[in-house]
Amino acid sequence: MSIRIAGTGGALPEKKVTNDMIAQMVDTSDEWIRERTGIGSRFVSTGETVASLVARACSLALERAGREAEEVELLLVATCTPEDALPCMACQVQEKIGAKEAVAFDLNAACAGFLFALHTAWAYVESGIYQNALVAGGEVLSKMIDWQDRGTCVLFGDGAGAVLVEKCADGGILSFVQHSDGNRGAVLSCGARPIANPYFTGASQERYVRMDGREVFSFALRQVPAAIEEALAKARLAVEDVDVFVLHQANRRIIEGISRRLGADLEKFPMNLEQVGNTSSAAIPLLLDMLYREGRIRSGQVVVLSGFGAGLTYGACVMRIN
Ligand code: UT7
Predict the structure, then answer these.
(1) Catalytic position from the list 58, 80, 248, 251
(2) Per-residue pLDDT at 205
(3) Ligand 1 pocket mutation pick from 21, 32, 181, 217 by most atoms within 8 angstroms of CB
(4) pTM of the entire predicted model
């Protein structure tokens, strides 16, 4: 028993922000950003929320799967940028799309969040608890970015992606691996609402994303190929058997480095970061949605998903498309 992707959806805010627009705010240039990251533009919220973007992506995924919202049994939203602490984003999405029979909750594993949510859905379906799940990743990172910090503000974008997965007898997800390394959490961090009560006298927390870019870069180059190889070994497949690698879209140079380390043709690593930047937990489902719509993911193909991010968290998943 496994799960297959029955439909995908994606949603972006209306406002497109080009590299040249960012170069008017901080000391950077279109040339530097493109050369060092591969990013050309990103979409930034002018009022769209995680819940509104995820709801749009979920509705599209349901429509493409030919399913009604009332049929959804589990609704998982991966996000590290919820607007509200309560209620969770998944419950807000549930209300917006009318998935009134679903059990809904959020999950935060930063840029690996969608992958971890997909693994959670797989475990629920495999164990027979639910028959299907809407799994989404959505972020409005622009509210956590220090727009004066050129080391981070050029990288991130807002958006959401979703997949409807359902039980299947053959194919679908073949293997999964997940890892977390909390000892290295400081290399990519962001404070949330600080402790503020009459008894607390400590210092206030950093409110914006802070990142040691080089550390994250080398962690991704080391751990992502290893996780992919581990997942492929579990599925008894080799790198050569893979048709498409759908990787977290953080930096073109990271993806090129991973393809070299795996010895796999870069052609097999589609990217959308040129258009949308790094959308954290939305990156993998947004790219999946694009590939399904363009017919670049087809029945019978072996597809690898792999993500990495703050935590540090990372993982990989092998699927046979059906
Ligand atoms: O989802 C996971 C989240 N994060 C990531 O995946 C990020 C992974 N890391 C990266 O993508 C890269 O490390 C960055 C794109 C963040 C930075 O690229 P880099 O090639 O590692 O640059 P660097 O940090 O080594 O900095 C090189 C130079 C520095 O100047 P000096 O000290 O050599 O004079 C930086 O100050 O580039 C400078 N720099 C910039 N210059 C123009 C840093 N950011 C910018 C910028 N524009 N936006």
Answers:
(1) 248
(2) 74
(3) 217
(4) 0.96
